[in-house]
Amino acid sequence: MWTFFHKLGSPPWFYSIAGRILQWLLPLTLLLLATGCIWGLLFTAPDFRQGNSYRIMYVHVPAAVVALAGYYVMAIAGAICLIWKMKMAEIAMRATAPVGAFLTLTALVTGAIWGKPTWGTWWVWDARTTSMLILFFLYIGVIALYEAYEDKSIASRAAGILGLVGTVNIPIIYKSVDWWYSLHQPASITFTGGSAIESSMLYPLLLMITAFYSLFASCVLCNMRVSLIKREWRASWVRALVKED
Amino acid sequence: MFEYAQRIIKRQFVLAFRSPTEFATPIAFFILVLALFPLGFGPVVKSSGAIWIVALLASLLSSDRIFRQDYDDGSLDQLLIAPQPLFGSSLAYIFAHWSQTGLPLALISPLIALMFDLPASAILALVISLLVGTVVLSLIGAIGAALTVGLRKGGALISLIILPLYVPVLIFGKASVDAGIQGSLLSPSLALLSALACGAIALAPIAVGAALRISMEI
Amino acid sequence: MHPIRRQRLGVVLFVVLFSSLAVGLVMYAMRGNINLFYPPSEVEAGIAPIGKPIRVGGMVEEESFRRNIDSLLVRFVITDFQSSLEVLYEGILPDLFGEGQGVVALGVLDSNGRFIASEVLAKHDENYMPPEVADSLKLSDKTSIGY
User: Fold this and answer.
1) Is pLDDT above 60 for B37?
2) C84-90 and C114-123 as β-strands: parallel, antiparallel, unpaired?
3) Can you say whether residue C52 is alpha, beta or left, with left for phi > 0 and alpha for psi between -120 and 50 degrees?
4) More confident residue, B64 or A210
5) Which pLDDT value is given to residue B93?
6) How far, in Å, CA of C118 to CA of B133, rounded?
7) Is there a contact between A40 and A205 (Cβ–Cβ < 8 Å)?
8) Domain parsing of chain C, residue ranges
9) Which range among A102-106, A189-193, B109-113 shows the weakest confidence by mean pLDDT?
10) Arithmetic mean of pLDDT over chain B
11) ipTM exceeds 0.85, yes or no
12) Does B36 touch chain C (CB under 8 A)?
């Protein structure tokens, strides 16, 4: 157990293992995305009320779900930076932030496009949309604070604190549709109560959520490898790597 | 610990009264920007939201200064190596900041409410919500200030960090003033605002302390 | 007790005290409601202010929708199954608008207890199903789907 933990902290080991994982993960992600899109967009029936416009759900929901989960990944990496000062956790935190910000933006934009035909407006200042917008700015704040410090070890611990403070927002986003009568509909899939989506529409959605998780993982791993090289360019293992090619 | 915190508060007050212009700037800013609202939107701005937004900006403007001077002259280093817990001393700093910005804003707000033609029932709600809400603003502002105190150009960054966290205060603050306009003083929104204040009092000093330790470790 | 330990104990007690105060206040606040819109029963109870821009929300009552022949003026009744409220609106309605659907309307209450809407938004629910399934559900008289 502890040897694994120590290995995880070693940049050359992580670099090569991440490369090997990506070899499988990237094609898998593309496959899942392609299957999910084709299934969801072409082979499901239109909704009995919204017609075809509900299909944007196959992008909107996975993006929002993974954006929230990604924030937890970032906050946990930040906590590890604060407690154990692990270099890999610093890199992981910085690598998740832009991916999460992009997913939040995707959820907001697709939500606006979906909102126009169904609600009749692009944007509403209700609890769900507002708190998602705050989530986006939290991601941006973490990136900006990290970049402001020269010393990356201080930078990641400072950004880690900001990330932990921001986790207060996540349960608010998740529960906002239940606490307030907002315009946004309540969650269709819950952990306990089953699903309010008919199963022929649900399976492509679950597939797309899996696809987005694996997209998130592969983007983060790619980011981490790049920043490892950037930070460790003086180290001998990077030189050895360059000589190999 | 209490004695130590008292001495910090006293020191902050002495420093503030030695440079009264710095002390008065947020208040002047508050009144001046509020005077601009009717000019920009026409004479019938009846919105309590405007007052809240300007209170937010005034607090933001002054929050960068919470630790700046003590960082420059080295007394922040003394604070960190003192045996007293950092929790109490950061709370003392925040209290001093709040009583120099938030408290005066809340106390002059009835005047503003008259300028904005708010009904009498709303004035008490406005004062109470500002009193409670600015506590949260100071606490969050201190987190941002502690995180950026080691940086030379922290000014724009601090607003990017703090403003998203200010949003709940704005929402519930404005909602409790609106409830006051409709005649109910002890509204659920005011309760939520106080809950925010209690939660922030309990947790923000921990974050401030940790952030100060990180920033000073250069 | 060692003075440093006593200080730490003080800090911990302080944090616990204020955290529990925060939780208690949230519980208190949850008993009232803070919402995007007023349901018709609250409008009838006189909680919603007259003549100020507010939002109301509810379900469009069956067979209450009337359209003016030569203008875009429409009239419908929204209900929360306890009381109902008449809404007047002039403009284009969103696609999802229909009888038996949830809506949120922005506008003002007039002194006759009617709601003059300036914007009508359709609220859709969390149920998704193909039309055939919806038809079969309707046939088997389970009209509880929807709002």
Assistant:
1) yes
2) parallel
3) beta
4) A210
5) 92
6) 33
7) yes
8) 1-32, 40-139
9) A189-193
10) 85
11) no
12) no
3-state secondary structure of B82: coil
More confident residue, A3 or B57: B57
State which fold the C40-139 domain adopts.
OB fold (Dihydrolipoamide Acetyltransferase, E2P) (2.40.50)
Counting residues of chain B whose pLDDT is more than 90, the rounded percentage is: 22
Ranking A60-69, A226-235, C65-74 by mean pLDDT, the lowest is C65-74
Q: Does A83 touch chain B (CB under 8 A)?
A: no
**Alpha-carbon torsion, ordered A127, C80, C121, A186, to 10 deg:** 40
Q: Do C36 and A198 count as a contact with CB atoms less than 8 A apart?
A: no
Contact list, A176 vs chain B (CB under 8 Å): none
Tell me the chain B residues in contact with residue C32 when contact means C-beta distances shorter than 8 Å. 187-188, 191
Residue B196 has pLDDT above 50, yes or no: yes
Closest CA to B63 of B163, B152, B130: B163
- Contact (CB<8Å) A149/B151: yes
Least confident of B100-114, B137-151, B174-188: B174-188
C53-62 pLDDT, tens per residue?
777 888 888 8
CA distance A4 to chain C (A): 35
Q: Is A151 within 8 Å of chain B by CB?
A: yes
Closest by alpha carbon to A152, among C144, B214, C72, C10?
Answer: B214
Nearest chain C residue to A197 by CA distance is: C128
Please check whether residue B154 touches A, CB under 8 A: yes
Q: Does A193 touch chain C (CB under 8 A)?
A: no
Touching subunits for chain B (3+ Cβ pairs under 8 A):
A, C
Q: Distances in Å between the alpha carbon of C107 and those of A30, A130, C48, C51, C85?
A: 47, 21, 12, 9, 13
Distance CA A159, CA A149 (A): 10
Average confidence (pLDDT) over A149-169:
87
What secondary structure letter does DSSP report for A27?
H
CA distance A157 to chain B (A): 7
Range A146-163 average pLDDT: 88
User: CB count, 10 Å around CB of C107?
Assistant: 19
CB contacts, 8 Å: B171 with chain A: 130
**pLDDT at residue A38 tops 60:** yes
Number of domains in chain B: 1
Sort out which chain A residues have CB atoms less than 8 A from C57's CB and list them.
Answer: 181
Structure confidence by residue, pLDDT tens digits, B158-169: 888 888 888 888
A206: contact with C, CB 8 A cutoff: no
Q: How close, in Å, is residue A64 to chain C by CA atoms?
A: 16
For B186, the closest chain C residue by CA position comes to C29
Stronger pLDDT, A117 or B67, i.e. the higher one: B67
Domain of B15, in residue numbers: 2-215
Residue pointed to by tokens 């915190």: B5
* Predicted pLDDT of residue C134: 64
The residues on C that touch B, with CB distances below 8 Å, are 4, 7-8, 10-11, 14-19, 21-26, 28-34, 49
* Cβ pair A73, A194 in contact under 8 A: no
For residue B60, how far is the Cα from the chain centroid?
7
d(CA B218, CA B150): 8
